[in-house]
Amino acid sequence: MNFLDDDYLLTTDLAQELFHAHAATMPVVDYHCHLHPEEIVEDPCFTDIVAAWLTDGNNYGDHYKWRLMRANGVPEALITGDGDPWEKFLAYATTMDKAIGSPVYLWTHMELRRYFGIEETLTEKSAKAIFDECNAKLATPEFSRRSLLRRMNVDTVCTTDDPVDDLHYHEEFAREGDTFAMLPAMRPDKALNPDKEGFVEWVERLEAVSGTTISSFDDFIAAMSRRIDFFHEHGSRLADHAADLMTYDEATPAELDAILAKARAGKELTALEVSQYRTAFMVQLMRLYSDKGWAMQIHLHAMRNVNTREFGIHGADTGYDAINDRSIAEPLYRLLDAAARGGDVPKMLIYSLNPNDYMAIATVMGAFQGDMKQRLSLGNAWWFNDTRTGIRRQLEVQAETSLLGNAVGMTTDSRSFLSFPRHEFFRRILCELIGDWAARGEVPNDVDYLAPLVENVSFNNAKELFLCD
């Protein structure tokens, strides 16, 4: 095969037909991303490819790329700093010369092809011509933020929104209309972390926007319930939680009131108190989401900001995170069991950044299925696992422990408007895997039989499970 030709990754005739005739034709539901809704509404063009690809000056760039550039010894001024755009692009191009085998290398060249029609390999020698061509195209209305989404056949994009947000950009977008939908997905991380800086001020904002005086933990949950109602009215059917570390510790109502009061007074909480608070909060959220028919996403085992010096300089989400390897099975089953006792297990998608967790998560989830199609799903290969190896393994575990045909596809989990070819990457790997199974006689070599499954995993399941009442 030639590099990134029409059949790349598709090593069997069956895989090729499943992808080209079925997976590739399906629209995209990106149910978890970090695009900014104001950018979608205002729809400006990017100033250049560096702003679109690497950084726009506000650390909205792609930390996947930043990590590779740091590994190549690129000065920080040419990564997140105020260096010259051309010099930044050249530094990235020279990094790509060494990045063969990285998914970022594939995504980079897929993005050049799918958005810009550029098939030349990005190298130090080709960088200037590619830089100039991308910049010329990005200056035109055909390459505005919304236009980039339309190019990728996006049906729905779900942004990540704080419970206290007023969602006025979503309201404006809904009034204007477009070929795709933009829906909010609630991300109550600030509510989940009473030990983090800013919690006191955030609770005060919650009181104001919910019209609730918060004097107890029950008041706090009532305020959150009102915000869930507000998000529901704006089309939200999803919530996401960066739980990172899964713990489970019960507490009495009086203990929860005392923990909340202590946190609001700015006093340091013990590890046990944080765990008790988070346990109760998650259980109550599961009840509220279940009542609304929402899907609950939980992202586990990210170990964030491990380089404290660089975190202090650049802030969160700038490339200084790693995989956690703590125990997960017992606290997860206890959380699900606490919700199940009240009949309150919502639709759930549980991710782990550590692929060693997949079997534990999948088997625990299997004990809580029932009453609806795929109540609980193993989250797609996430972050460091967005590789051919990682995606295949996640799909294999889903197939081996539950139902592959009910899997809910891919998300970009990205701040980049140029990241949507990752859906194609996932779909090619899905078709490759099925083709491999058929070549070994493990599944029927029958396109008509397999095509509905491929279409469902690529698009229909996500649309049905997460975005429909």
TrEMBL record:
Q: Does the keyword Ion transport apply?
A: no
Q: GO biological process: what's one of them? A: D-glucuronate catabolic process
Q: What protein family does this chain belong to?
A: Belongs to the metallo-dependent hydrolases superfamily. Uronate isomerase family.
Q: Reaction catalysed?
A: D-glucuronate = D-fructuronate; aldehydo-D-galacturonate = keto-D-tagaturonate
Q: What is this protein called?
A: Uronate isomerase
**Leading EC class:** isomerase
What Enzyme Commission number does this protein have?
5.3.1.12
The gene for this chain is uxaC
Q: Which residues form a coiled coil?
A: none
Q: Which domain of life is it from?
A: Bacteria
Q: Which HAMAP family match?
A: UxaC
